[in-house]
């Protein structure tokens, strides 16, 4: 099956399974989303949602966060892991937002990527989920599933992002990013599926000895 057919099948199945895609990280505005996404690096969304109420009760705007010491931030977010780096990132980006952007998170990918602690994936999530700008945030889980489904042969998330953007309509990117995440958690976790168990893998897994036929009905 060619990649375009695989992509069309994935898009159809995921839309059937997840027609609505709630944002998994609790937030109230672009700033709190930015902080939550930063905290989610190598941490589960569940854990982040347990920690952010305490952090945001202390400070939920860039101006308020500037009044909180890096050490206090670090103590609050410690359960999320990587707290020394993340606390410096939160403090640094909050200061940059106030001093350079009037306390407003800019809807600009290039600017977001200049903030400490904010990489391309974090910026992509904020652009798509806070501002509705088409972006395809590829993390290691999406990278794994895209490889398993024969959608990319990329060795890195950067190449996988390029491949997925070529395969799927731009209008689908924001929803599809979340749909793949939800599918991976529910059906196709790293340990829960070896590429032959979950519904999509049973149809698309390239290394099967005998490929299943796609039901186009």
Q: Which of globular, elongated, flat, extended, rod-shaped describes the shape?
A: elongated
Mind telling me the CATH superfamily name of the largest domain?
Hypothetical protein, domain 2
Mean pLDDT: 92
Structural class, please? mainly alpha
Q: What is the end-to-end distance? A: 17 Å
Number of E strands: 0
Name of the top-level CATH class of the largest domain: Mainly Alpha
Helix content: 55-70%
Number of helices, where a helix is a run of at least 4 consecutive DSSP H or I residues: 12
Instruction: Give the low-confidence spans.
Output: 209-217
CATH architecture of the largest domain: Orthogonal Bundle
Number of domains: 2
Q: Report strand %.
A: under 5%
Order of helices and strands: HHHHHHHHHHHH
Major beta sheet summary: none
Describe the secondary-structure layout.
Elements lengths: L2 H15 L12 H10 L5 H14 L3 H4 L4 H8 L5 H19 L7 H4 L7 H12 L8 H9 L8 H11 L5 H14 L12 H6 L13
């Amino acid at each position: 099956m060619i990649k375009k057919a695989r992509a069309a099948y994935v898009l159809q199945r995921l839309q059937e399974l997840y027609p609505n895609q709630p944002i998994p990280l609790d937030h109230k505005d672009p700033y709190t989303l930015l902080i939550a996404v930063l905290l989610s690096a190598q941490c589960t969304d569940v854990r982040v949602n347990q920690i952010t109420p305490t952090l945001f009760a202390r400070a939920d705007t860039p101006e308020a966060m500037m009044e909180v010491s890096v050490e206090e931030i670090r103590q609050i977010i410690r359960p999320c892991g990587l707290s020394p780096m993340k606390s410096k990132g939160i403090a640094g980006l909050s200061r940059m937002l106030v001093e350079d952007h009037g306390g407003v998170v800019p809807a600009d990918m290039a600017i977001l990527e200049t903030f400490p602690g904010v990489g391309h994936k974090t910026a992509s999530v904020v652009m798509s989920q806070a501002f509705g700008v088409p972006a395809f945030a590829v993390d290691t889980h999406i990278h794994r599933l895209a490889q398993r489904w024969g959608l990319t042969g990329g060795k890195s998330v950067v190449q996988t992002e390029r491949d997925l953007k070529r395969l799927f309509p731009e209008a689908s990117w924001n929803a599809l990013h979340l749909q793949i995440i939800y599918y991976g958690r529910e059906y196709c976790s790293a340990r829960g599926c070896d590429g032959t168990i979950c519904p999509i893998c049973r149809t698309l897994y390239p290394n099967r000895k005998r490929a299943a036929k796609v039901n186009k009905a």
